[in-house]
Structures are given as C-alpha cells and as structure tokens.
Specification:
94 residues; 34% helix; single chain; alpha+beta; 2 domains; 4-stranded antiparallel sheet
Length: 94
C-alpha cells in the first residue's frame, strides 16, 4: 500500500502551501523591518518644560511642526508656539 504514487493534485497543493508559507514569512519579516527602521526616524522633540495657567492640569498633549497643544482638565485647549513657548491661543470646549 505504501508504493502508491501521490496524486498530482495533492503534490500541487503541497507545493502551493509551501510557497505561500515562504512568501508570508518573508512578508512579515519585511513589514517588521520597515516598522523598526521607519519608526525610529524623525522623533519629535518634546518641550523641556510647559508652563500652564494656574489651576490647570494637563490631560492630553499633541504637536505639529510649529506648535503644540495641551488639553486641560477644565475643558480648554492651550496652543503654544514651538519656538518661543508662548501661548498662542486658548480654545474653550463647550
């Protein structure tokens, strides 16, 4: 019983599964490599110190090329200039 030839369809299926597995492994390795190399670039510089108005506590922080914003617990968004650190704008969230 062991000397029966393997059907052609089964041989083809086995090769296709092997090729697919190889391609998936290479794809995962490439994606991980790209994530490692791309995420390490151009890390934004955070300000060393932010002076908030009296009584305000920061709950969130975001930044852009020339400004950064701090969301406070009293429903305000404080937008600061990145170069000078001066308060540019205050947005009150209703």
């Amino acid at each position: 019983m062991d000397d029966l030839p393997e059907p052609a369809n089964l041989r083809f299926l086995r090769r296709m599964v092997t090729v697919l597995t190889t391609v998936m492994i290479f794809g995962v390795v490439i994606v991980i490599g790209l994530l490692v190399t791309r995420l390490g670039r151009d890390t934004p510089v955070l300000p060393a110190e932010i002076t908030l108005p009296d009584g305000a506590t920061a709950t969130a922080f975001t930044q852009a090329a020339d400004w950064y914003a701090v969301v406070t617990d009293d429903n305000r968004i404080l937008i600061f200039d990145r170069m000078t650190g001066a308060l540019r704008q205050t947005v009150v969230v209703q």
